[in-house]
Amino acid sequence: MHRFDRLQSRYLTTGDFSALQQMETEYPMETRVLIEKVLRIGMIDDPDISQRILSYFQDSTLQALVNDAENEFINTEDINKQLQKVFSKLKKELPDIKIPRFYTQIGALDESVVVGNDMIGISLDKYMGANYPLYKKHYSWEERTTMSRRYIVPDCVCFYLMSLYPLENFESRTQQERDFHMGKMMWICNYLMEEHFFDLDILKDIETFQEIHHLSVPQLLVTSKE
């Protein structure tokens, strides 16, 4: 897992322009995604984009968030090992998939996981723990229960599978169809993790459905509930 967040943090907290240059040279795609798709503050080629990034994070709350995230995730070896283990198992189930490149970032409380270009970006600031004071002001307890370190890998699995197996005609689908599709990803994640990270009622239906039809992981991914 590449620690893009460390360069980002250095730039945001010190204004060290060399850190931004390093971001752009060593992590060009990650920097583009951060600016254009996560923060949505402009285009990477805008002449004033470097100052715009700094200005965006000058808020004292965001500055504290950057520092807190860096302190909380000084060591990420446990996450690295878990990602390697779970995605290796996923590769065995789906031999044709490509193992993505993983990197960490600070997303200013936007998206938890960003998937694209064979990469998965993990926003560490969305996994500070259910009792993190800032979360209590903006998120319900139910939302906060999944905003902790232990949910990083399950989220990566679910969002990556969703990107590989999107629900066609999503907007015209019923809520039941949408729930079933997302539930399949959660069920597979639980299966790969060998732990019930996700425990929604829909997963019991999928468990029964899978057992009745004796579906493998590849079959379940492309099967709809009739």
Q: Main β-sheet, in a few words?
A: 3 strands, mixed
Classification by helices and strands: mainly alpha
Overall number of domains? 2
Low-pLDDT stretches: none
The percent range for helix content is 55-70%
Series of H and E elements: HHHHHHEEEHHHHHH
Oligomeric state of the chains in view: single chain
Cα-atom radius of gyration: 19 Å
Please give a structural write-up.
By secondary structure, the chain is mainly alpha-helical. It folds into two domains: 4-163, no CATH class; 165-221, no CATH class. Helices cover 58% and strands 6% of the residues. It contains twelve helices and three strands; from the N terminus they run ααααααβββαααααα. It has helices at residues 4-14, 17-26, 28-38, 49-56, 60-72, 77-93, 133-138, 141-144, 152-164, 175-193, 201-213, 217-221, and strands at 101-105, 113-116, 119-123. The chain has a three-stranded mixed sheet with strand order 1-3-2, with helices on both faces. Helix 6 runs parallel beside helix 9 (152-164). The longest helix is centred in the last third of the chain and has 19 residues, at 175-193. It starts with a helix and ends in a 5-residue tail after the last helix. The model has no long low-confidence stretch (mean pLDDT 92).
